[in-house]
Amino acid sequence: MSEDNFFSAITGRSALSAKPFCPSCERDGSDIQEYINMAHAEDVEVDDYIRQEEGTFNHANGHFLCTVCYVKAGMPSSPHGWTCP
User: Fold this and answer.
1) What is the pTM of this model?
2) φ and ψ at 18, to 5 degrees?
């Protein structure tokens, strides 16, 4: 089973339509004021801003770590970039 099919089986959503979600604090990106403010400043939708600009965003499942959770997690990184599992 592909990763996209697995994600769809678990969540009932397509990976391509996955709403950005921080699994650490269990909030949708569109509910986090920091991202609301940044998206507003760029005149884009919050979800689109996260998909395009958030370095931890995982395009396969929609997960990312918001700034607070990223810091709490020890600011994970890797030579090729780190995305939220």
Assistant:
1) 0.79
2) -60, 130
